[in-house]
């Protein structure tokens, strides 16, 4: 067993040994009580790597004492599923743990689903992707529980590390290791809530440390070297990656520059400049908008500079763009206006284009009634420019208003003009 990785050896053997995820499988939860009472529902476990999906499945198996089979949907074929079905017929009930369940294909489903429905196979599916996006409805409908797991806290990870250092059979307790509490905390903080990474790093640190008189002495320099080797979590195009993009935009919208920089740093560590710059450009027009129209040009320039520079230098113009957006006045009025107009069209709130607005650049257009348009530039109004009172919307919806100004930044001026023009129209009609 000592040849197996430490993270594998330290998996919980029962649900009472599970560290973290207390709101999912803690003693006060319905799931814990069901399992303790002998009822194991089929379920989906959703969350980032290293936060306990596989461990919870093994812990449930250890508690229930049911025959346990583990498969990975990326490598298992129809024959593997048929073997599970055969096992369930022989034993009466089987607990199947299926990792990467979002990659389940139709043949595997067809062979397995009736047995999950009948209860002869209890399915525990694990996925890093959002099950409501990436897991087939047929699977979801047969799982009574869909649990989203959270990243482990630093305290949870530190507890796991201490257990590994103390356990003489499964962990490193048979070795004499000199490691300070603050060093354990440093490893825990650097694991980013990933128990597997933390235990793997601890094992590597111990193996890389020097021995003195039979005692392994852990040095801070070894810890820091190993910490640099741990990547930031966030697979490109995975659910967590899109969660990072969402968190970045919501932090900018909420004017929290520190949170925005944190999420930007995460995204850039994953190296996908295209997705980041695309999202920043959308944010400039969606969330800053007319309150500070210059931001759109500034962000575009920053994104173009980032594309030309590449990483790591690209972080500099992008950080400036994010900082400016965080601290800028904000308005979503323009995009809300186009969404309102689009919604109205989909609801059938349309009409004919007024005759005087139709194309008149050809012979015979006047015969069709395309006449009466007045050129606004010929009628100056104050310092605004040209304006005339004429209808532009179809007669059927001429009173429609999609734009609702936000009184912020530059849009204060635009809002004043908008309201003034409305009063002009009311006076002349």
From TrEMBL:
GO biological process, one term: DNA synthesis involved in DNA repair
Matches recorded under SUPFAM superfamilies: P-loop containing nucleoside triphosphate hydrolases, post-AAA+ oligomerization domain-like
UniProt keyword terms in alphabetical order: ATP-binding, Nucleotide-binding
Classification via SMART domains: AAA
Pfam families found in the cross-reference section: AAA (PF00004), AAA_assoc_2 (PF16193), MgsA_C (PF12002)
Domain of life of the organism encoding this protein: Bacteria
Lineage: Bacteria, Bacillati, Bacillota, Bacilli, Bacillales
Molecular-function annotations in GO: ATP binding; ATP hydrolysis activity; DNA binding; enzyme activator activity; single-stranded DNA helicase activity
UniProt keyword Nucleotide-binding present: yes
InterPro entries the record matches: AAA+_ATPase, AAA_assoc_2, AAA_ATPase_RarA/MGS1/WRNIP1, ATPase_AAA_core, DNA_pol3_clamp-load_cplx_C, MgsA_C, P-loop_NTPase
Record protein name field: Putative ATPase
Gene3D superfamilies: 1.10.8.60, 1.20.272.10, DNA polymerase III clamp loader subunits, C-terminal domain (1.10.3710.10), P-loop containing nucleotide triphosphate hydrolases (3.40.50.300)
Similarity field: Belongs to the AAA ATPase family. RarA/MGS1/WRNIP1 subfamily.
AAA+ ATPase domain residues: 39-151
UniProt organism field: Planomicrobium soli
């Amino acid at each position: 067993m000592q040849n197996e990785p430490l993270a594998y050896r330290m998996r919980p053997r029962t649900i009472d040994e599970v560290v973290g995820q207390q709101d999912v499988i803690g003693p006060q939860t319905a799931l814990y009580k069901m399992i303790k009472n002998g009822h194991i529902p089929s379920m989906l476990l959703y969350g980032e790597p290293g936060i306990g999906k596989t461990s919870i499945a093994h812990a449930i198996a250890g508690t229930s004492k049911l025959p346990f089979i583990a498969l990975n949907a990326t490598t298992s074929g129809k024959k593997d599923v048929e073997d599970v079905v055969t096992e369930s017929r022989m034993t009466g009930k089987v607990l199947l743990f299926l990792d990467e369940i979002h990659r389940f294909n139709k043949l595997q489903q067809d062979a397995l689903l009736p047995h999950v429905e009948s209860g002869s196979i209890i399915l525990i599916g694990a996925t890093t992707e959002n099950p409501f996006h990436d897991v087939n409805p047929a699977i979801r409908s047969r799982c009574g529980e869909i649990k989203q797991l959270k990243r482990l806290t630093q305290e949870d990870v530190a507890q796991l590390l201490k257990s590994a250092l103390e356990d003489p059979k499964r962990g490193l307790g048979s070795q004499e290791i000199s490691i300070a509490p603050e060093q354990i905390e440093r490893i825990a903080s650097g694991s980013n809530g990933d128990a597997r990474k933390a235990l793997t790093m601890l094992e590597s640190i111990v193996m890389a440390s020097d021995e003195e008189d039979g005692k392994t002495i852990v040095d801070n320099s070894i810890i820091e070297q190993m910490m640099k080797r741990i990547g930031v979590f966030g697979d490109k195009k995975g659910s967590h990656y899109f969660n990072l993009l969402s968190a970045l935009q919501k932090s900018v919208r909420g004017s929290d520059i520190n949170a925005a920089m944190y999420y930007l740093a995460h995204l850039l560590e994953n190296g996908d400049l295209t997705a980041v710059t695309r999202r920043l450009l959308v944010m400039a027009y969606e969330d800053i908008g007319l309150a500070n129209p210059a931001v759109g040009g500034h962000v575009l320039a920053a994104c173009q500079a980032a594309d030309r520079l590449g990483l790591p230098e690209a972080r500099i113009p992008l950080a400036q763009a994010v900082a400016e957006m965080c601290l800028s006045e904000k308005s979503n009025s323009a995009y809300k206006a186009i969404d309102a107009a689009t919604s109205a069209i989909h609801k059938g709130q349309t009409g004919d284009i007024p005759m005087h607005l139709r194309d008149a650049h050809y012979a015979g257009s006047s015969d069709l009634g395309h006449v009466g348009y007045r050129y606004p530039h010929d009628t100056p109004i104050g310092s605004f420019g040209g304006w005339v009172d004429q209808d532009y919307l179809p007669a059927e919806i001429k009173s429609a208003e999609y734009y609702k100004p936000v009184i912020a930044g530059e849009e204060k001026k635009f809002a004043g003009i908008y309201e003034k023009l409305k009063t002009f129209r009311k006076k002349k009609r």
